[in-house]
Amino acid sequence: MPQSPKNIAIVGSGLVGSLLAIYLRKFGHQVTIFDRRPDIRTIEFSGRSINLAMSNRGWKALREVDIEDEIRKIAIPLYRRAMHVPDKPLYFQNYGLEGEAIWSLSRGVLNRKMIDLAESEGAVFRFNEKVWDVNLPEAKLYTGETEKSEWQEYDFDIVFGCDGAFSRVRHKMQRRSRFDYSQDFIDVGYKELTIPPNEDGTHKLDKNSFHIWPRGRFMLIAMPNIDGSFTCTLFLPFEGAVSFESLTTEQEAKAFFKEHFPNVRKVIDNLIRDFFKNPTSAMVTMKCYPWTYWDKVALVGDSAHAIVPFYGQGMNAGFEDIFVLSQLMKKHNDDWETIFQEYQRERKPNADAIAELSHRNFMEMSSKTADPDFLLQKKIEKWFYEKHPDKWIPVYSRVTFSERPYTEALAIGDHQEKIMQEVMKMPNIHKIWNSEEVERKILSLL
Amino acid sequence: MPQSPKNIAIVGSGLVGSLLAIYLRKFGHQVTIFDRRPDIRTIEFSGRSINLAMSNRGWKALREVDIEDEIRKIAIPLYRRAMHVPDKPLYFQNYGLEGEAIWSLSRGVLNRKMIDLAESEGAVFRFNEKVWDVNLPEAKLYTGETEKSEWQEYDFDIVFGCDGAFSRVRHKMQRRSRFDYSQDFIDVGYKELTIPPNEDGTHKLDKNSFHIWPRGRFMLIAMPNIDGSFTCTLFLPFEGAVSFESLTTEQEAKAFFKEHFPNVRKVIDNLIRDFFKNPTSAMVTMKCYPWTYWDKVALVGDSAHAIVPFYGQGMNAGFEDIFVLSQLMKKHNDDWETIFQEYQRERKPNADAIAELSHRNFMEMSSKTADPDFLLQKKIEKWFYEKHPDKWIPVYSRVTFSERPYTEALAIGDHQEKIMQEVMKMPNIHKIWNSEEVERKILSLL
Question: Could you report the predicted ipTM of this complex, rounded to two decimals?
Answer without folding.
Answer: 0.84
